[in-house]
Amino acid sequence: MTDETTDYAIKLDIFEGPLDLLLYLIKKNEIDIYNIPVALITEQYLQYLKIIKSLNLDLAGEYLVMASTLIHIKSKMLLPVPDEPSDEESEEDPRAELVKQLLEYQTFKEAATALSGRPLLERDVFARSAPIDDKVEKSTEDEDELIEVNVFELIEAFHRLVSRIDKKELLEIDLEKMSLTDIINDVMERLTREKNLTFEELLGERIDRRRIIYTFLAVLELIKMKMVKAYQTSAFGVIRIFPAVES
Amino acid sequence: MENFKAIIEALILASEAPLALEKICVILENVEKAEVKKAIEQLIVEYNERQSGICLVEVAGGFQFRTRSELSPWVKKLKGTKSASLSPAALETLAIVAYRQPIVKAEIEDIRGVDVSAPLRGLLDKKLVRIVGRKDVPGKPIIYGTTKKFLEVFNLKDLSELPTLRELKEISEQKEPESVTEPELIEEYSDT
Q1: What residue spans in chain A does CATH classification 1.10.10.580 cover?
Q2: Residue A70 — very low, low, confident or very high, per pLDDT cuts 50/70/90?
Q3: Which of A36, A157, B68, B192 has a CA-to-CA distance to B169 between 20 and 30 Å?
Q4: Given pLDDT bands bounded at 50, 70 and 90, which one contains residue A175?
Q5: Do residues A139 and B85 make contact, with C-beta atoms less than 8 angstroms apart?
Q6: Which of A22, A107, A140 is most worth mutating to test chain B (most B CB atoms within 10 A of its CB)?
Q7: For A72-91, b where at least 16 C-beta lie within 10 A, e where not — what string?
Q8: Could A16 and B81 be called an inter-chain contact, meaning their C-beta atoms sit closer than 8 Å?
Q9: So what's the pLDDT on residue B187?
């Protein structure tokens, strides 16, 4: 089958990695990080990988390594504990290593946020002779109330939409020619006109699988190119897409 | 020299980069370092009290006049609205380098759980991170550290001004003694 979407392999560098995905799942499920229900998290993690794969995103190897680590921990936890422990080491929780890794990563994620919150040169403060360096300039959001959406939340929104479509509709052969470039242009055009739109509004009436996937890819691509920004007013709220630069 | 406070003010304004206390002392010749320092402190207070648009800050081992952060919307209008922020990947990588330096790439990747080649290259390009040497282990991996520009951009006097990672300390306390890594011998190469 020559699906047009196979022509696009979107790089996964917009994701912050498997640890970021795990932290997101832990936060979303309101789980105690020291007592992770491995079965639940593994299941959800694999579900995300499936969605990512179905989008034809180029899946980084690290995600698969993490998947196997999770499955390994899960299987270890299923094994019966030996009656007499051979040595103290074997008593250790199989999750301990992962928890340590997650906590460490989380700490640096917070440190990164703290760094970004400082009064940055050429963003918040300016020195008299500071050279204007296009690359180092920072963007700031005036709308403090809005939370910038991460990719996982976008994927989840996408998943909700796709699962809403009637299964029969998915089998429909769509002869309408579509290219990602067209959709990207279309999205940008509508965003400049309407100022901001939800993902659903972007799709409009024509909800078919291909349209959803293309629109989603277009939004991801535009976010990556920093042409648009995705925000929500609360965690897991409705996601709105804004043009990054007001024309 | 009665009016050396004014001279200091002029020197700091005229300097391209944050001006170090030592350099001011060299120029002023006959004034005691402690007095220069006192004068700078007075200047800092004066600018703060005056509620002026600029303030004198200690940054990257020197002193510099900077605009007040509350005024950034206006200054940005002057400078144009070009914007390209550091990506989350770059910021995380930078945070790890800042707190854990000297550090090799593999160690950063252990923490982030993902390849850091691209963000690291970006940080090197932006001169926020530099190569400080090579580690004396097989493969001689490159060791990275932050630059003076990092301090300037992030408004830090020096690295000790980085906010402490409280949680990190707790983790390392839980660590078994064997897993605490000893500071390794670093074969320093002077970077170009």
Answers
A1: 139-247
A2: very high
A3: A36
A4: low
A5: yes
A6: A107
A7: ebbeeeeeeeeeeeeeeeee
A8: no
A9: 43
Q: Is B89 on the interface with A (CB under 8 A)?
A: yes
Q: What is the pLDDT of residue A9?
A: 44
DSSP letters spanning A57-81: B---HHHHHHHHHHHHHHHHHHSPP
Q: Are A10 and A220 in contact (CB under 8 A)?
A: yes
Cα distance between residue A78 and residue B44, in whole Å: 64
Q: Where are the domains of chain B?
A: 4-70, 88-188
- Are A124 and B72 within 8 A, CB to CB? yes
Which of B23, B64, B15, B17 has its CA nearest to residue B44?
A: B64
Report the alpha-carbon distance of residue A191 to residue A243 in Å, rounded. 6
B168 close contact with A: CB closer than 8 A: yes
Q: pLDDT higher for A165 or B89? A: B89
Query: Which value, in Å, is the radius of gyration of the alpha carbons in chain A?
Result: 22
Contact A145, A232 (CB under 8 A): no
pLDDT of residue B20: 95
Q: Contact B88/A16, CB-based, under 8 Å?
A: yes
Check CB contact of B64 with chain A, cutoff 8 Å. Answer: yes
CATH fold, domain A139-247, is Arc Repressor Mutant, subunit A (1.10.10)
The answer to ipTM > 0.95 is no
Q: Tell me the CA distances in angstroms from B130 to B79, B87, B102, one per residue in order.
A: 28, 18, 10
Question: Would you say domain B4-70 falls under CATH 1.10.10.10?
Answer: yes
Residue to test with chain A: of B47, B54, B59, B83, most A Cβ within 10 A: B83
Name every residue whose Cβ is closer than 8 Å to that of residue A201 and which is 6 or more positions away in sequence: A194
Which of the residue ranges A125-134, B86-95, B130-139 would you say has the lowest mean pLDDT? A125-134
- A128 versus A175: the higher-pLDDT residue is A128
- Judging contacts by C-beta atoms under 8 Å, the chain A residues touching residue B81 are 245
Chain A residue at shortest CA distance from B59: A121
**For domain B88-188, which CATH number applies: 1.10.730.10, 3.30.559.10, 1.10.10.10, 3.30.70.120?**
1.10.10.10
The answer to whether A156 and B95 have CB atoms below 8 angstroms apart is: no
Q: How far apart are CA B135 and CA B152, in angstroms?
A: 27
